[in-house]
Amino acid sequence: MMHYGYGGLWGFGFFVILLLIGLITYMAIRLSQGSDRSYSKHRAGNDALDILNRRYANGEISDEEYIQKKNILRD
Known about the structure:
By secondary structure, the chain is mainly α. It folds into two domains: 35 residues; 30 residues. Helix content is 83%, strand content 0%.
C-alpha cells in the first residue's frame, strides 16, 4: 500500500530548509572573507617595505640605500 501524505513533502521541505541554512552560512563566510582579502591585498603591498625595514634594522644596508629604496617603494 502506498502512502501519499505529508511525510514525503515534509522530507523535501526539510531538505530545502537545510539547503537554505547552508546557503546563508556560505554567503556569510564569503562576505567575511571578502573583507579579509582586501586587507591582505593592502598588507601584501607593505611586505617589501617590511623586508627593507628589517634589513636596515639588521645593518645590512646603509642609510642612503635605505632612503633610496624606501622612496622607490612608496612611489
